[in-house]
Write a structure and sequence with these properties.
The protein has 433 residues and is α/β, with parallel strands linked by helices. It is built from 16 helices and 13 strands. It folds into three domains: 140 residues, Nitrogenase molybdenum iron protein domain (Rossmann fold); 118 residues, Rossmann fold (3-Layer(aba) Sandwich); 143 residues, Rossmann fold.
């Protein structure tokens, strides 16, 4: 758990998570109430983390816009300028849905954005990103906030729940590259194997109208990055919610499929699918596990929802987790998940950089055989030479074709990457002191 000390913690801001969600809906446009840094934040994603991002445009019709409000003009009446900007953005041919949000400085001013969206009469679906968490939430709250806004305000007219149709809500689509496109297709493949159909996946890199297809669902499958949105959508549709963990790792994938089998009354199909997947995956790990994983030490830095699955996967293969740096608030995990992680050495939730620097520099220096984590985590902590980039942001690793990391096939691909990086790291000379 984070200490009570004051300082800038190793975490990612709320608005950055909201941008990741907008990035995953290619015809969603955003007007942020605030200064030009609202626009600049999109540069952390477009072409840097996501080679296929469309947040920015060479014709200046960027999907992220700002009002220009700052400390000098915040006391003035800017409502007319905001409604004009909303109408201008909505008129662009590529705009399928319009979102509005605010920097904390502007959020506390209390501007009624819902009213301004109504008064603008853009003719486009319009949503306000919840401002309550913008003041204290982190990137995962920002992503979840966009999903919650969609679940609350999406037009569900003509809803006709279809048999075996499932809306998947809460997939964390942090970029449009092959790792996440592959995950979306893997989720769809798992559902098909059990005789189910993904009516809509929130989010999947597909346009706004594909999200409305959720109105065909007879159940909502809730994933960790969108629990509230899943409950809201299910309540509006009058259907049930099935809460699942991520199918990350071999054991996580098995639990995920078994849960689907139980909840949707098809346990035999689930059992047969698991057996077939393991028959295909396990033989391919036979040589690698004793050489690359058994008795090896690993560290993880990134999304809390992947941290526990990573530890479980490594320990299942005979390895040991030597450190976990959780880039996200402890409130994202259940008490049981927090205890699981805190039972392992060097676990820190959104710590201050000095609190982890010494321990993690030791891990990077050789106390860990491989560190798996995002580029953000290594801004303050050295990654050393034995590391594998994973999660947001990934600035040096990109995927041009489908390479999922979810499901049984995804676990094999993830472990293949990890084994290659670990062996390469062992062969590289140590960094000079």
């Amino acid at each position: 758990m984070p200490s009570g000390k004051i300082g800038v913690r190793i975490n990612i801001p709320y608005l950055q998570g909201a941008y990741l969600a907008l990035n995953a809906v290619p015809d969603a446009y955003f007007l942020g109430d605030g200064p030009s840094c609202i626009f600049a934040k999109a540069e952390h994603i477009h072409g840097r983390h996501d080679l296929f991002s469309t947040l920015l445009s060479c014709d200046s019709e960027h999907r992220v816009q700002h009002t220009g409000l700052n400390v000098f003009n915040i006391a003035g009446n800017c409502e007319g300028a905001i409604t004009d900007a909303l109408r201008r953005i909505a008129a662009w041919p590529g705009c399928g849905a319009l979102f509005m949000g605010a920097m904390p400085m502007c959020a506390i001013a209390g501007t009624d954005y819902e009213r301004l969206l109504r008064e603008a009469r853009t003719g486009k679906p319009a949503f306000v990103i919840p401002r309550r968490s913008a003041l204290s939430g982190d990137w995962l709250d920002g992503y979840a906030g966009v999903l919650e806004a969609l679940a609350s305000g999406l037009d569900l007219s003509g809803a006709r729940p279809g048999r075996d149709q499932v809306a998947v809500v809460g997939y964390f689509m942090d970029r449009n590259e092959g790792d996440h496109q592959g995950n979306v297709r893997e989720l769809e493949r798992i559902l098909r194997a059990l005789g189910l159909q993904a009516a809509s996946i929130w989010l999947s890199g597909r346009p706004y109208e594909s999200l409305r297809a959720a109105r065909q669902a007879s159940a909502v499958l809730s994933l960790p990055h969108g629990r509230t949105a899943a409950r809201v959508l299910a309540r509006r549709l009058g259907v049930r919610v099935v809460e699942a963990g991520l199918p990350f790792g071999l054991e996580g994938s098995r639990r995920f499929v078994e849960l689907l089998g139980r909840e949707f009354k098809r346990p035999e199909r689930a059992r047969d699918f698991i057996a077939a997947e393991l028959d295909a995956v396990i033989p391919r790990l036979e040589w690698t596990v004793p050489h690359a994983f058994q008795n090896r030490r690993f560290a993880f830095a990134g999304d809390p929802h992947y941290a526990a699955g990573f530890a479980e996967l490594i320990e299942e293969l005979g390895g040991r987790v030597a450190g976990t740096l959780v880039v996200g608030g402890a409130h994202h995990l259940s008490a049981e998940q927090r205890r699981f992680l805190e039972a392992r050495p060097q676990t820190a939730f959104e710590p201050l950089p000095p609190e982890v620097r010494e321990a993690w520099n030791e891990l990077a220096g050789g106390a860990a055989d491989l560190i798996v984590g995002s580029a953000f985590a290594f801004q303050e902590v050295s990654a050393g030479r034995r590391w594998m980039e994973f999660g947001y942001p990934s600035e040096s690793t990109h995927f041009l074709r489908d390479e999922p990391f979810l499901g049984f096939r995804g676990a094999l691909g993830f472990l293949s990457r990890a084994a290659n990086e670990l062996v390469k790291g062992l062969c590289l000379p140590r960094e000079p002191a």
